Structures are given as structure tokens and as C-alpha cells.
Amino acid sequence: MAPSLWKLLLATVQLSSCRQCSATESCDEETTLLQSHVTKTSMGLAAADTHHLNFPHISSLTDPDKRKMALAQFEETATELASNRAAVTPIVVEVCNSTSELLRDTVMSAIVHEHDTDVASLAAAYAVFGSVEQQRLEYEQLILNAMDSVYGDGGLIEVHTECRIRESEQCAGCAECEDTCTEVITDCELAEVELRLRLNDVISRVDRDAYCDANGHIRPPSSETVITQAEHEVNRPAFNAYLAALAAFEECEVRKTIVCESCEVPETTGTSLLAVSQRLGSTPVVPGGEVPDAGNNPVCRNHTDIRVECNTIQQQLQAAACESRHLASNYLSLYEAAFLAAVRRYNQVSSHVRILEADRKVEWDTLERVICLLMTLTNPDDGAASSVETQNLIAGCRNDDVDTSHLDIVYLPTPDMGDLPTLPPNPCEDEFADEHYAGLPQCAGIADYQERIDHGILSTCMCFADAPEERHYGFPWELGPFLLFNAGFELNSASGFQVTGAGDVWTAVVDGAQYTGRISPFVAVSLEGLNDAFGLSGSDSVAQVAWVYGDPQGTTDLILHGEDYPETMQHRFVRTGGYVYRNAQGFVVALKEMSPSSDSLGQTAQLTIYFGDPGVITEAMAISACPQMAPITLGRLLDAGAEEYCWEFSNAIPLCDHGCFLYKTVTHGYLAFPVIEGPAIDRPEHYAATDQQAALEHSMHTGHLAATVPE
């Protein structure tokens, strides 16, 4: 048997042996023993024929971190075996069939399990949005309940308004009562003056020399004085006038007592209007010595009581409004924090799953080609290595398309943040007063009443329910992440894409139409892993990168064609631009369109670009780095306030170690978003015995983590 077939047999034994290992045994240790045994058996074989035929251990093929390199090694060895078919025997056919079967059962099965696990992990990360949305609905109801007691029908605002209206009426009634009392007091004072005048007239009419003694009695100058009937008759009109004045005075005093006591206020809150009348020097004279009952509800006492009631309601209103604002602020903070955490986690998971998905497709493609090469050895018709038939078989294994659609993963777009009720105003601020206190009647709007009567809105208020800390989401506070896709052009071709001039101009042909635009200066690449992501190696390795600015004509064509526009990757590229990569010799080796989502016309993303927090730069710095900025080509950035942009990678901006996108914005001036390395996902080294990540059951039996961060 040929030396290469001994190696193939060894690989098959290794794979079969490892498949049968128990949980407590080491497949690699058993493989080492088998390696020693087969080496002793093949002592007579030429080492020169076997040293380059290396098959990887099964542990390398089932380890996602090592599989890519192991498969590349496997493909190389399988190609050499397929090219040397001189010693095909029944045992070779059996070995090849067994090896192919084992690769499908073990390695491909592991890939499918890893795929299922990542699908489940992605679904679990996205499912968090459902939980967060449920929280939002609960928070919304709690906020609405708290606000309804204040702002709803029959709430404290309505109750307070109605109370202040009644207070205004009582205030006006009190002031009017005071005015009436004052008028009555004045009338009684005039009646008393009139009474005194009439009394003097009576005295004067009886005897001009008469006098009043200490008891107020009229005395003639002597006891012998005689007053005739005629003289009494002459004095009758004066007495009648006196009696009428006395009756008017007594009536006024009674009326004063009734009116003024009906206005009485508690002495703790004001001065009795009866006391006011007493200070004016008149004591009410009431027949029988009794003061008429003014009622149990004096007007001003009623106003005092309702003012206390309204002030109490206002304080309750302020407390409830403050509490509703506090609740709304807290729930809004909780919801925003939960939502943004879900966004970060989902973006983190989806970005890494995209990379792993692409890796699995490459690995599956390689496995299918390895199996295809192995199966060429099972062809019963032997042939020379140089035969056309053999070469065609090998070429078919290498060039035929491999279907990897079963490894496709759907990436749902990040949902928009939901809304919560608008944060109610602070009840101690002018906004609240202007909305809910303005226009309330105060003492019927009469200025004189308002100056005299204690009334109206309390000025004391305390509420420390601050607005939640502002949380920002999206541009201009965040940018990306963006996915890179193959733009789909023939490179370095006049019928495709090419760089012209001094390397600062590009041209491209799409459906017979030619587009052109400018290119930023080429600089040395700084991000690692670009060649692996783009599938490049050797002389095609990337050395320089630049940004291709879109051609505005592409947008014009889109508008002109409307719904009939034939959207392709090429059409999108000429509108929005992308990255162009050159090798060390200056030839374009990669052209990548950038998209904010996985919706890129059925294409698979090759790389995810992450951006750090924006840095505020001066206009002078922006102009120095980008003398000529370009119009915004992404509608969502334009809607968010971006006006112009450019790609900067000349170290003119200190934070742009891997390049920056600079934006001129409407609200934030000039911002620089630096490209950064992708974030790592914190995952356990092995899955737990229970399904902690909502993965399918069989994905827990692979024994290896399906999605790890590449070293």
C-alpha cells in the first residue's frame, strides 16, 4: 500500500478511535498510542513520501478555535491523495468511505450543533426585547395610574380648581360683607350725631337756662320755675324729632350687629368686624339687651375654612404631582437602561455570531471539498495523476459551488425604543403653575378685595423629583456597528472598478453606466484579521486602505427610476461608498460596501466595524483633516442631524488610531467617531448541564463552546 494510504488509514483509525472514547478517556492519548503502533507497522516506508501528509487530530476538527487551520491542512493532504491514485485498493475505498462518513457524523454534526446553539443564543438575546417591552407596558400603566390621580377626570387638579372657585366666591362675599358692615357703621355714626343734635334741640326748647345734671336730667335754674302747657306744646316738635332720631339710631345699631357679626372671622385668623365697629366708638344698643344671632356660618369664617381646605388640597396636589413625576422618572430610567442593555447585548451577540456563521460556512465548504477529494479515491477506475479525468475530478471538488444555506442565520433588526408617558412637570416650577393655576379666579378678580383678603395659591412648594439622567441612543451619540460586504465588482478593470489618477479617483461601471468619485488618501491598514475575513493571502494580502466617496449621480439615478430601480450591491456602493483595499504592489484586492444591517441583498457580511464614543473636535481640526467633506448618503444619519462627513486616517485627529468618520452636525458641531477593535463576549468556557442559553438540547452535547471569541 502507498505511504499516503497508510497515513489515510491512520487518520481513519484516529477518527474512529476518538468517536468511541468514553467521557473519562482522552482521544488524543489514544491517538498517540495508535500513531506509535502504525509507525512501527510501516517502518519500511520512505519518510520522504509521508512527512507532508498530515491529518489533524479529531480534537482539532471539533474545536472551533482550531478547526479552520486543521481543515486547511486536511484539504491540502486530501488534494495530494486525490492526485496520487495509483494504489487504490478495496481497503482504500473502505477507508475513504469511513473517513467521509466520520467527517459528516462528527465534524459536520458539530458544526450543525454549533449553528443551532448560536441561533438559540441569538434568539435568547433578541427575546430580551420582549421582556423589556413587557416591562415597559407595566411601567406605563403604573405611571398612568399615578398621573391619573392628579391629572385625570376627577383628579386633584380638578378638585383643587373647583375649591379655588368656591374660595374666590367666598372671598368676594367676605369683602362685600366687610364693605356692607363698614357702610352700616358709618350710617350708625351719622344717626348718633343726628340723635345728639335732636337732644340739644329738646333741651334748648324747654328752657334756655336749663342744664343737665350729673345724671343727665334737665333741671331748670330753680325749683320755682314754672313751665306752662303752651310752652310744652311749643317744645313738642323738638321732642318728636328727638324720638325719631333715637328710633333710627337704635334700628341702625341692631342692623350693624346683625351685618357685622355675619362677617365675623376667627380672632386667630383676623380681626372681628364687630371689634372694628367698637373701635369706631359706637356700642350697639340692642333692645332688651340681646344681640341677634348672626347664624352659625359667618361669611368670612366660611372663607377662612374653605381657604384652609383649598390649601390642604393644593399641598396634596403638589405631593401627588411630585410623586407621579418621581415614579415616571424612575420607571423611565429603568426602562431605558434595560432597553439599551438589551441593544448592546444583542449587537454584541449578533456581531460575533455573524463572524462565526461565516467561519462555519467556510469550514463546511472545506469539509465538502475534502470529502469530495477523498471520494475521488473510491472511483474503481484507476488512473494516472496527470490524467484529464483525475484533474477534472479534482477541479470539480475545488470549483463546484457548495450549498451552505442551511447554515444561514436570520438577524432581526434592533427594535426601536418604546415610549413612556411624557415626564410630568415639577409642581414647584412655573410650567406647572402656568398650566394648572393660571386663570383661577381670585376674589372675583377685584384688586381691592385681593389686597384686603387673605386668598389664593400657596407659594410654598418643595419637590426634588428630578428628571432622569439623559440617556442617548443612536446618532450623534453612537455610530454603527456597520457590516462589510463584498461590493461585487470586477477589480482593476475598466468594465468593473478601478482606481485612477494619483490614486485619488475611482471609476466603476454598473449596467453600462459609468460612475466616478474621489478617494481618501491610502494609508497602511492597522486592524488585524482583515485577510482572514476577506479570504486573502500571499500577494493579495491587504496593505493599504482608503475610503471611496459615493457618486451623487447614483442617488439621482435612484430617484429617477423610482420603484423600477434595479437595486444591487454595485448600485448601493456607487451611492454610499465603501472601503477599498490595496496590496503592497498597489493593486486593489478588496472592495467592501458598508451597511448598518444584515439586509444586503442576500450577501453575507465578512466583517463588523465598531466605533467608539464620539469626540468633539473644533472646526479648524475638521477642516485640517478634511478640507473637502461629502454629503450624507444614509437617510437615518441625515434625519438625526448629520450634514456632512469624511473619512480621516492621517493622524490629524489623535484618537483615530484605526481611522475616524468625521461628521458636521446640526446640534453638536463636529464629531469624530473612531474605529475600534470589536468587543469580546463574556461566555463560559463550556456550556452548563442545563440549557442556560435557551439552546436546542442536542447543542449541549458537543462538549465544546460553539461560539467563542477568536484569539
Q: What is the helical fraction, as a range of percent?
A: 40-55%
Structural class based on helices, strands and sheet pairing: alpha+beta
Overall pLDDT metric:
76
Unreliable stretches covering 5 or more consecutive residues:
1-53, 266-295, 382-386, 680-711
Radius of gyration (Å):
50 Å
Helical stretch count? 17
Largest sheet: 11 strands, antiparallel
Description:
The longest helix is centred in the middle third of the chain and has 78 residues, at 299-376. The chain folds into two domains: 125-470; 482-679, no CATH class. Strand 9 and strand 10 form a beta hairpin. It is elongated, with a radius of gyration of 50 Å. It has 17 helices and 16 strands. Helices cover 49% and strands 11% of the residues. The strands form three sheets. Strands 3, 7, 8, 9, 10, 11, 12, 13, 14, 15 and 16 form an eleven-stranded antiparallel sheet that branches. A three-stranded antiparallel sheet has the order 4-5-6, with helices on one face. It has a two-stranded antiparallel ribbon with strand order 1-2. With 711 residues, the protein is α+β, with helices and mostly antiparallel strands. The two termini are 41 Å apart.
Helices and strands in order, then pairings?
Elements: H1 3-19, H2 27-41, H3 58-62, H4 64-83, H5 90-151, H6 156-206, E1 211-212, E2 218-219, H7 229-262, H8 273-279, H9 299-376, H10 388-399, H11 430-436, H12 447-452, E3 482-486, E4 497-500, E5 505-510, E6 513-518, E7 523-524, H13 530-534, E8 544-548, H14 552-561, H15 569-576, E9 578-582, E10 588-595, E11 607-611, E12 615-617, H16 619-625, E13 630-631, H17 635-639, E14 642-648, E15 660-665, E16 670-676
Antiparallel strand pairs: 1-2, 3-10, 3-11, 4-5, 5-6, 7-8, 8-9, 9-10, 11-16, 12-16, 13-14, 14-15, 15-16
